[in-house]
Amino acid sequence: MSYAAGATVRVRTGDPDHHTRVPRYVRGHTGVIVAALGRWPVPDDSARGIDPPRVETCYAVRFSAADLWGSGEHTVTVDLWESYLDRP
Amino acid sequence: MTGHDDLPAAARARQLEERLIGAGLTSDDEIDEFLTRLYTKASPVNGARMVARAWTDPQYRDLLLSDGTAAAAELGSDRLGYQLRAVANTGTTHNVIVCTLCSCYPVSLLGPSPGWYKSFAYRSRTVREPRAVLAEFGLTLPDEVEVSVWDSTSEARYMVLPSRPAGTGGLAADELAALVTRNGLIGTAPV
Prior knowledge:
The complex is a heterodimer. By secondary structure, chain A is mainly beta. Chain A has one domain: SH3 type barrels (Roll). Chain A is built from two helices and five strands, in the order E-E-H-E-H-E-E. Chain B is of the alpha/beta class. Chain B folds into two domains: 4-40, no CATH class; 43-186, Nitrile hydratase alpha /Thiocyanate hydrolase gamma (Nitrile Hydratase, Chain A). Chain B has ten helices and four strands. Chain B has helices spanning 8-22, 28-41, 44-56, 58-66, 68-74, 107-110, 120-128, 130-136, 173-179, 182-186; strands at residues 83-88, 93-98, 146-151, 156-161. In chain B, the strands form two sheets. Chain B has a two-stranded parallel ribbon with strand order 1-4. In chain B, strands 2-3 form a two-stranded parallel ribbon. In chain B, helix 3 (44-56) crosses helix 4, helix 3 packs across helix 9 (173-179) and helix 7 (120-128) crosses helix 8 (130-136). Chain B is globular and about 55 Å long. Chain B starts with 7 loop residues before the first helix and ends in a 5-residue tail after the last helix. Classes of the chains: A mainly beta, B alpha/beta. The A-B interface holds A 21-23, 25, 37-38, 40, 58, 60, 65, 68-69, 72-81 and B 83, 85, 100-101, 127-131, 146-156. Strand 4 (75-81) of chain A pairs parallel with strand 3 of chain B.
């Protein structure tokens, strides 16, 4: 599944017992794709020594503070690998 | 006085180096070369030169914003080891960089990161209440300026392209670069 800039995505929930690069504060939240950054090994695999790791597109995804925190006018943009995301 | 060599952390680092060298993953020479490059070349002067060039050369500005890694290489900072993404401040948007998971930072272009960048307070508060954090750095933004926070969670590293200050039309490139501060490149200062 690849996403175009402007697409709405939802970050998967769940709290894996291994390394991941999904900050807790965006889990389950909806954001908008800003850009595709590149294709890189998924850190969850690399950190566990899975060889070869999955290689996926990583996206910059923008969230509104009001959605994340219930208040605030700013935005927060987080880099997230494809398998961290779902269509809402 | 205790030398750094005596610290437990130094002993751990050396043991790790020996294991990596023993496993054939690196060598003493490679580590030395890396550290030499880090200590002699990693400096906010690199980022500042890129900003000054972007202020005076629209083509370079476009390159910096579309392919930061190539823009860094053009001014001599090649082999970054990460994808550089520059984000531009405008009259309506102010950018600020953080790494909530650890302390990711474009060291080669900004120099070793300041202690506060790695602090739990900066990392947790910047995504939650950036205006309050920036105000503590002495940067109070007008209400109409939107704050855009970038959390460096991947292999990309972010750098802010500050707006060119007014009244700097007559300055040469090196004088412009001298206006740019490390905090300006992180986003905790206007320039």
